[in-house]
Amino acid sequence: MASLAACRRAVLAPNAYTRSLTTAPPSATSPPSPPTHFKITLRRSAISLGDRFKATLEALGIHKRNQTVYQKHSSDIAGKILRVKELVEVENVPASAVRNKWEQRQERKAVRGYKVVGSRRNTLMNL
């Protein structure tokens, strides 16, 4: 028995030949905030589905394909998502990642390729 216990200690004890994963020291920044919202994006159309599926999507606030909405975590929203899980893509996001409709639109816009420095109208008006 003593030899069996010694073998277990030898196997379980760390030695110089074992590898371990090292982690980076904790950063000075605050820890990431926990997810508080669902990011729901409609990926498939509900055209040929019944009215109950369409009503569920409407209750979630989704009206078009590739539209994204943010909903707070709650049991009723989770149930609605499960009802249409084949049609939507869902991510858990923190409150800091929640975007309203205008912010989503601004993120999609391309950067203007030019800058208006002056116009002829302004120079004529100053005469």
TrEMBL record:
Domain Large ribosomal subunit protein uL30-like ferredoxin-like fold: 38-88
Presence of keyword Transport: no
UniProt keyword DNA damage, yes or no: no
Gene Ontology molecular-function annotations: structural constituent of ribosome
Native organism: Agaricus bisporus var. burnettii (strain JB137-S8 / ATCC MYA-4627 / FGSC 10392)
GO annotation terms (biological process): translation
Entry similarity comment: Belongs to the universal ribosomal protein uL30 family.
GO cellular component, one term: large ribosomal subunit
Keywords (A to Z) from UniProt: Ribonucleoprotein, Ribosomal protein
Coiled coil: none
Protein name: Large ribosomal subunit protein uL30m
